[in-house]
Amino acid sequence: MAQCAQSVQEFIQDSFVPMVSVLCSEDAERVTRKNNLSFPELLRPFCRLTSEGHLRDPNNQVVVVKGLRISVTGVNTRSPNSGEVRKLLSQAVSGCQPPEGLPANVITAGDYDLNISATTPWFEAYRENFLQSMPASDHEFLNHYLACMLVVSSREAVPTEQFLKLSQEQHRIQHSGEYTYPKWFIPNTLKYYVLLHDISDGDEQRADSVYEDMKQRYGTQGCYLLKINSRTGAAGPDEQMPDPWSQYLQKTNIHSPVSQDCFFTISPGAVLAILDVVSEIHPLKLEQSADPGFPGNPSKAVNSADTARTQKQGSVTPGAAPTAHGACLTLNDHDRIRQFIQEFTFRGLLPHIEKNIRQLNDQLVSRKGLSRSLFSATKKWFGGGKVPEKSIAELKNTAGLLYPPEAPELQIRKMADLCFLVQHYELAYSCYHTAKKDFLSDQAMLYAAGSLEMAAVSAFLQSGAPRPYPAHYMETAIQTYRDVCKNMVLAERCALLSAEVLKSQAKYSDAATLLIKMTSEDSDLRSALLLEQAAHCFINMRSPMVRKFAFHMILSGHRYSKAGQKRHALRCYCQAMQVYKGKGWTLAEDHINFTIGRQSFTLRQPENAVAAFRHILINDSKQTATQQSAFLREYLYVYKSLSQPSNEGSLPQLPLPCVHSAQTRVFFGHEPRLAEGEKQAATHVWLDQEFDQEQAQLWAELEEQVVAVANRGSVHISFQPTQYCLSSHTENLRYPFAVVEEPMFVEVVFRNPLKVPLVLSDLSLLWKFTTKDFSKPQGALNDIISTEVIPEFTVGLEETKVARLKLLPHKTGELHVLGIVYNLGTREEDNSASEGITQKLLMFVRGRQDLEIQGPRLNVTKEEKTSVRHGPDRRLDPIITPPMPLLEVFFINFPTGLLCGEIRKAWVEFVNVSAVPLAGLRVASTHPEFFTFGSATADLTPVTPTAAEHCSAYKTMVTPPSDAAVTLVSPAAFGITGDNRPTVVEIPLTGGVLGPGEALQIPLWLRGPDREGVHEISFLFYYEGLEKNAKLGHRVLRHKAVICASRSLSVRATACRSNTLPGRGKRDEREEERSGSMLVFVDVENINTSEAGVREFHIVQVSSSSRQWRLHKCINPAGDKDSKLASRERGKLCFRATRCRTQEATSDALEKYTFADLNLGNEQIVSSTTPCADFFFRRGPPSDMTSIVRKCSEVELDIIVLWKAYVVEDNKQLILEGQLHVALQTIGKEACSLSQKEEAQEMVLLKFKPDLPPPASRPSLEQLSHLIKTCLHYPESYDHPFPQKSLCMVPVTLTLSNCSLAQVDVIIDLRHKTTSPESLEVHGSFTWLGQTQYKLQLRPQEVHGLSLKACFFQAGVYNLGTPRVFAKLAQSGTMCETSQQSAMPALIIINSV
């Protein structure tokens, strides 16, 4: 149970107090009415004694009475009506609401932090009123009148006559038999005579004389002179008198007579509280028809006591002052009244009770001589004055057995009640226990239950607790009251007392069980209050039972609602919601929120109702579609009852549909154009494309490359790659840039969690704009930013759908997209419409949802790592910049499939669609070897795609087969500097500028990739504006082409030295042969498996390109010129190659390449021009490491095989052409255009990812073992006189020759390797004298001699080839030295002379 203001002892003592009645004369009543009070009301605040009282029990022991309170009420001869009592209790509960502003009690239980009210004052008010309103019963005397005050004014002509009349009236009421109510404790009721004197208007001497006469007549202990109304005038403005009556007068006293207004008072809200009983709404029913005031019942008015009370309180006339009580009383008068009560109690009431206890005790003691059995038998024989029983079954009925007032059993009970009222609990318990036995033996169950109840209470209240609390007494009493006597009022009182006792003993589980048993259908208010107290018992246990607390709070709220207590019902549901919220009990949450919403709406709290219905809709509901539709209609109806704000920025938040803010994407730019015929627009970026981190990194690297080229090799430290589409995958820490007059699209992801479709209408973005130019007038909103409005957007049941909303800025400044605004509604089909036509009804409300995006978690500094901090996300806060050029790129005749090495000519068109000129156009690509725009000297005829449709992509000349045509070409003419391939190409513009609206078409040559499969080719077009923009320096356009490459030819080439001596041929040939010549064998295989309709390949020309060698002539048989290869056929060609004559001509000729063309037909392709030379120079980069490791056996000769393929497509024969490259590097070693692995594999579809960069090539172990050539110079034989000189020293020179083109580190080790088998083959041994290990560094192709000395001990044949040489490239860093190839054995003969 909840905490109470009183202790359990105080509560029980105040529940059973001595009852005193009052009879007043009319003059006396007028005296008290000056204070707006009746006489009982005047005394009520002072009825608790502040000092101790004493009396003696029958054993002459002193009994101390502490904190005694008496109840003084007017005589009401009409018994309380049950209906009036219910109204009174309902008013007491509804008038006591939770105090606002007080801190609630926070209880932590496991994972729950519950914010609940620690006290329940409404329950205490109900309990107090319930106990006070209990009707007097014949089976007990606790609420019978013990005394009667007779009050007469001193202004009466003859006060004694008035006292006599009042005394006779009291006697008539008690003894005449006309009135069954009120009940009187004993026949000889104490009469206490009070003379009331009005000091302000009366003769004090006369009052004193009358009082003296009263003392002579009634005795000093039976009368009192009470002087009041000392104040003659009104209280001053600065004088504030206490008003102790206000708290008591709010409570209605059911014992006051209705006929006298002064005795029966009703607070203004009582009539309203009566209405609480009228409402019979069942909150568990979810149908609309169950609750008035909702869409299903628009004509019904809301009926609720709480609402009526609110309206009533709101209609009170403002400025009406509350009624003042005790206006004529001073503090001295308060003390006089307090003294009067004390005198009455100590000198009148307590002695009267003591006397009656003694008399009752004497009567009982005088009968103890008789045995109980004889006494009982006598009663049976002579009837004992009882009404005879009719049957055995009626013994258990309270109406079946009645005791006369003078019955001994009732005398015992009467004595027990008297002892209980004066706090003599030990004697009271003894009497109750004795009476209980008598009643049980007589089967007087009502009397027995009353004795059991009070015996248990007396046992509990005994000081020192000599015996434990007999809870089973209470259980028996409750069961008897409820089941046998059918008296729920007495059962409820018993339960309230027992529950309070059990709570004080921390037996919360027993208390909860007891309270729950007392719930029934006969009283919703009682059941609601007891269930709520049971819930508090569960939460106050040592181990709080949180879920039981919540469940019983729900039950209590339901019963409160049935009782019409809407506010208390709402409070119970709200407290229970704390337990069910967020724990997965979705159906329970829905029910609670739905009830809270309806109760709030009924109580005119639409904001709370909207919030509750909102919770039902935002969670993943497990309700049926019908129920969800009902929830949604309820929400829309309640929402519409709120006043709709006119400003869209102040619109409230809507719960539906769910918006995934983190998945919001923003795109800056126009929508992509569709392809038109052969004209294909650049793919660029669009919202339909999924984000790929690898692709984003690829585009960033391409952009960085082209920016570095545009800025002459440097990239600014603040460089950030351009991002057109921002999402949760991109870095959004910086403010993005948007260009004025260019649209931006915001993609919002909606999810409908319900099983009913949602209709969003007038959907648009909500934004805030800060302009940078304050000098110009702002104008209308559409003059700043044009906002697209979607008229209707439907989200299906449980569907996730994307909406793309467009903004078009017209001014520069800062834009902030705040959220979205829309009308939320739902459609219903009207079945009452005519057949075949469904009329759609749309109910909607206007609202908004904010797009709040949380940035990435920061994790750099120590503070950020130890706490949870998030950075900003600026994707919705773009900065609008001044106009910038905008480029569109179109590709014409761009293929989707090519043969490996195939050359195709296409066209590209650049269009400036902006209003500002464009400059600095460049393009970068991941596959620079795939395309070329041609060299600056290229012949651009034909100039249009139509004219070039049937022309060859090559530049050709009609020439019969002959010796090779030689051309000297510089790589710089094709954009090649050093050994680097050009990754960025500058596109020439007329005058360097592409004006607004202008277009430019230029040719584009493409070459099929060397590897078959699907290839993604990425193009990045870079351009700038003429006017430098501080925030946006450049722009880029992306294009991704997908090419499917099919097999064509496989080319293998081998070179070998020519063994012919210079003969008698032509002079030029002899010079060429003398300078060096070799044979080149070219083996060509058609590996195409008739894919794409290819019939056959023709080898039309073989060309070479090298700085040292060139093809001279073809030495194939004369009849086999034009090689034709069908599928899977092979052919072999043989050529003679000679060294270039230009090698010795000039120094710059070393940097030029010699192109030699040997055409096998009658048409020569000029390989030194576009596009053949372009693709040759754009081939794979040569290996840096291997190009500097040169031996005499290595060559640098590239073979270019040009071919034509005859293809049948759509019954038309097409001629395709292409070229393949083979790099010859070593004589005698075969080179191939494809690796063996690539040759053997079948056609497979590759994943759409960029090609991995080729691994950096390193020289082979064989090449590294030939870096140094060694040679020993020594005499073949040497004579030495060993008999004269035992040591023979021979000088030896070791010559080291660097065969490479790089610096080489050399280590020479002269120490013998004893484990070598070579050392065992020589006769004897020798040693090297002097330094035995050398470390040298040789420049490229340097020859170095090293002088050594060999020492011999005897004659013989020796092998001097023991020095070990190790070498490595100086630039190879940590690479280990490689052992060089050993020379032939070097034998020396030592002779002894």
Extract low-pLDDT stretches.
Answer: 252-320, 369-400, 830-839, 1183-1187, 1236-1248, 1315-1323
Overall residue-averaged pLDDT value: 79
Oligomer: single chain
Number of DSSP helices? 33
Distance between the termini: 132 Å
Q: Which percent bin holds the helix content? A: 25-40%
Estimate the strand proportion. Answer: 25-35%
Rg, please? 58 Å
SS content category: alpha+beta
Shape: elongated
Major sheet summary line: 11 strands, antiparallel
The tally of beta strands, per DSSP, is 56
Structure description:
It holds the Pfam family TRAPPC-Trs85. The protein has 33 helices and 56 strands. It is α+β, with helices and mostly antiparallel strands. Strand 8 (190-198), helix 7 and strand 9 form a beta-alpha-beta unit. Helix 4 runs antiparallel to helix 5 (121-132), helix 19 (524-539) runs antiparallel to helix 20 (546-562) and helix 21 (566-580) packs antiparallel against helix 22. The protein starts with 7 loop residues before the first helix and ends with a strand. Mean pLDDT is 79; it is low at 252-320, 369-400, 830-839, 1183-1187, 1236-1248 and 1315-1323.
Task: Give a topology summary.
Blueprint lengths: L7 H8 L3 E6 L1 H8 L5 H5 L9 E4 L5 E4 L5 E4 L7 H13 L10 E5 L2 E5 L4 H12 L12 E9 L5 H17 L14 E9 L5 H15 L4 E6 L17 H4 L20 H5 L30 H10 L16 H36 L5 H11 L25 H14 L3 H17 L3 H17 L9 H14 L3 H17 L3 H10 L6 H16 L6 H17 L3 H15 L5 H17 L3 H13 L6 H17 L16 E2 L5 E4 L10 E3 L11 H18 L14 E2 L10 E3 L4 E8 L6 E14 L9 H4 E3 L2 E6 L4 E10 L3 E18 L8 E12 L11 H5 L12 E3 L5 E6 L4 E3 L2 E11 L5 E8 L5 E2 L23 E3 L6 E5 L14 E3 L6 E2 L4 E9 L5 E13 L9 E12 L2 E9 L9 H9 L1 E10 L7 E13 L2 E6 L8 E3 L4 E10 L13 E7 L3 E3 L6 H6 L6 H4 L6 E16 L2 E15 L4 E2 L3 H5 L20 H4 L3 E6 L3 E4 L7 E11 ...
